[in-house]
């Protein structure tokens, strides 16, 4: 249970929004029609001013809070943050969480059946960018009758979407909450993503992305990709305190089977992930991370110039043990915002959890989020 006490939104039912208006993607391909799966928590107020959009990270989806049925063992991925009396309080805010275009949890993506062929899109599904996601999210807002978000919120890749909202649709967002994120990936991060993709692309069961037709899944590649990624989401101190050099047994076995508890943990995480996530979607999501660079898109390489388009207020939060998206990257965003005299609150939070800290229960982090959303509510949403 969260250290920040609050209630549950209870059982929720995913909804599907259908879009028949073609969407031109950044890569030049037009998607003629598509659907987005989403969930909502709380009630939209009379003047539709209390809506909050939750943008998910690489492996996230629309199920951010509550349960899908009463005997669910696991709640939504941000259930500790969203709900009655929680930092994003559903007694005050109408919260929308969606599965992005290209996803594998109901929204149109590579595993979706192409109505023209009767087969999954597979390798024919185009690459998508953060800008494309924001464009599709704006259409979802239109369908829901939301002219302006009280806030757009996200961690990691979700934070990039929140940042893009302020530049793509500056009139449609009042607050951007950007957590454990960056204005663009470093060379090291791009390298990690490429190694992860190569694990999938070189899996014999990948079949050029059309493994659906072969009745197989590139499990080995996806498993390795997740194991690598998971290492980068944790801190050395966090892994050390949880696992150290603990063995599963009493002595070394002098073979290549699992001997250390950290090995067992990573293999468990890899196996679990490969059992529910689509490999093609993983490839798309990591490329969207690589391509994200609003300074290049809007500012001729200058982030301050790019963010001169923004009109929102900002909360930028970072974690001191996050070495994948370090606090230095968040401070780059803060500098660009202050260059433009935009309202910005910056919080650098001590944590042992590394990049994954934005998903964890942490009193200081939760207090920062609660205070900021109290401020949004005080504006009269």
Quick rundown:
The chain is of the alpha/beta class. Helix content is about 35%, strand content about 15%. It is an enzyme of class 2 (transferase).
Walk me through the structure.
With about 375 residues, this protein is α/β, with parallel strands linked by helices. The protein folds into two domains: about 15-185 and about 295-380, Rossmann fold (3-Layer(aba) Sandwich), CATH 3.40.50; about 190-285, Rna Polymerase Sigma Factor, Chain: A. Helices cover about 35% and strands about 15% of the residues. The protein is built from eleven helices and twelve strands. It has helices spanning about 130-145, 155-170, 185-200, 220-235, 235-240, 260-275, 280-290, 295-300, 305, 325-340, 365-380, and strands at about 15-20, 25, 30, 35-40, 50-55, 80-85, 90, 95-100, 150-155, 175-180, 315-320, 345-350. The strands form three sheets. The protein has an eight-stranded mixed β-sheet with strand order 1-4-8-5-9-10-11-12, with helices on both faces. β2 and β3 form a beta hairpin. α1 (about 130-145) packs across α2 (about 155-170) and α4 packs across α6 (about 260-275). The longest helix has 16 residues, at about 365-380. It is globular, with a radius of gyration of 21 Å. It starts with 14 loop residues before the first strand and ends with a helix. The model has no long low-confidence stretch (mean pLDDT about 95).
